[in-house]
Each structure stands twice: as C-alpha cells, then as structure tokens.
Amino acid sequence: MSVVLTAALVLFAITLVFAALLGVAKEKLRVHEDPRIGQVNEVLPAANCGGCGFAGCADFAQAVVEERAPCDGCTVGGPDVAAAVARVLGREVVQTFPYRPVIHCRAHTGDKLGVVAYDGVHSCVEANAVGVTQGCTYGCLGFGDCVRACNYDAIHMVDGLPEIDYVKCTGCGACVRACPRNIIESIPFKQEQMLVVACSNKEPGKNVRQVCKVGCIGCKACQRVLAQLFEVRDNLAYINYDNYTGEEDLKAAAGKCPVKSIVYFGKPQPEYAAMLKEEDTAVTQV
What we know:
Elements: H1 2-29, H2 35-43, H3 57-65, H4 78-89, E1 99-103, H5 124-130, H6 145-149, E2 155-158, E3 161-164, H7 174-178, E4 184-188, E5 193-197, H8 205-211, H9 221-225, E6 230-233, E7 236-239, H10 250-256, E8 262-266, H11 270-279
Antiparallel strand pairs: 1-4, 2-3, 5-8, 6-7
Helix pairs in contact: 2-3, 2-4
C-alpha cells in the first residue's frame, strides 16, 4: 500500500513540476499583441477586399499600428475611416484623395476593327492568352473579368466596354487586378470628375487607325496645349496626376484631341456637362 501511495505522490509531484514549467513557458513565449490593433480593426469596414494591399482588415490593422501602412490606406472606408484610425493611434491624417479606377480604353464594339470570331472561354484572361480576338492588342477584350471581380456591383459591360458606377465603387482595386491587359488604373480623384486618356495603344498613329476608330494617335496636340499635365511617350499620351489640380484649361486640352480619346470619368460637374455632350465623350453617368 505504501508503494502505491509513494508512486501516486511522485506522479503528483511530477505533474505539479510540469504544470509549473508550462506556466512559466506560457508567460515567456506569449506574444503580447498591441491592444491598438484590435481597436483599429473595430473601426475598419470589415470588407476584407485587399484594396489596402493586405490580406484582410486584421492584417491591415496590424500594419497600421506597426507603421507599415498609412492611416488612410483603407480605400473602402475613405476619409471617415482614416480619421477614426488616426484618432485611435493619436496621429494626424494628411489630406489625401480617394483612389478610384478609370478605363484606359473607350472602344465600344463598333469602334473595334479587325475583330476575329472567338469561340473559346469567355474570359479576358483566356482571350488575352489566345491573342487573336481583335486587331488592337492593347484594348479592352470585353469579356467582363472586371465585372465578375467586383463585389459591389459597381462595374458593368456596356456595348463591349466596362463602365463604372462611382456611387457604388469603393476603390478596392479588384477590377484593376482582374484586367490582364492592365487598362484599368486607380488614380487619385481630386475632383468628382477626372480627365483620362482612354487608350493604351502604344503603336504609331497609322497602325492605331487600322485597329480602332477612337484610339490615341500620339499627335501631341494635348501636350502642346498643356505641357505641365500631358506627356506623349511611346506614341501614347499620359497625364501627370501629381500636377493635376483641376484649375488647368482642361477643356482646351480635351477639345484638341482629334479622336476624342481624352475623356472624363466620374460624376459630371455642371460646367462640363455641355462640353461632354457636344464632344460625345465616354463619361460614366451616375
């Protein structure tokens, strides 16, 4: 009986020792999470869209606290969420602009030349891999990968070209990532409506005319009117949005484009409405 009791006492003592060791190890190895991470996560919209560049809101919250991401990095939340995050962290929010997608192509079905019959999978990724569905190898393929990628019903195909509903758009960037030809770009919306070069074709103007009715021909007319904003590189006009204030003579620059490939995206403002209608530009109505 004494042997059994002794063995039980020994086992009990060993158990106590291991329990004590586990308790010490738990404290030594514990990862102490900054409580601000949870507080930041609570003010985020819980969209987990990846628009901030992180896997989800929790990862973004940790990155913000660790100063690996800015307070205004949540594209879905916008300025209100940025201000809330800044309050949690006791930081100052520098005024920024929301980033929203624009389409660097304005060729609807009837504007595309050299279209080839395609019986494959109706996916832009698949069609881009095939590479022979239309004459322009830069423009929109029109199969709607961007539409399927959007979780907010903010983009729709209209006559072979995506159009964005800027009321619903959160700027998450899903459509940007879905486009295999990279014709969708997120730009800073410094105004409700932004000027955009709606073309991506870098071929010489003569070649562009053979595949598209509305493609940029690299004539540099816009650059001559507004050199601080426009630059033509590789036969294609680009806009420097760092210099974009909205106070430039944008109407004159857009009006000089002979193929009307410089257009406005976003919510039309009253002063531009007549010009947009007159020039038949591809403005997204909201």
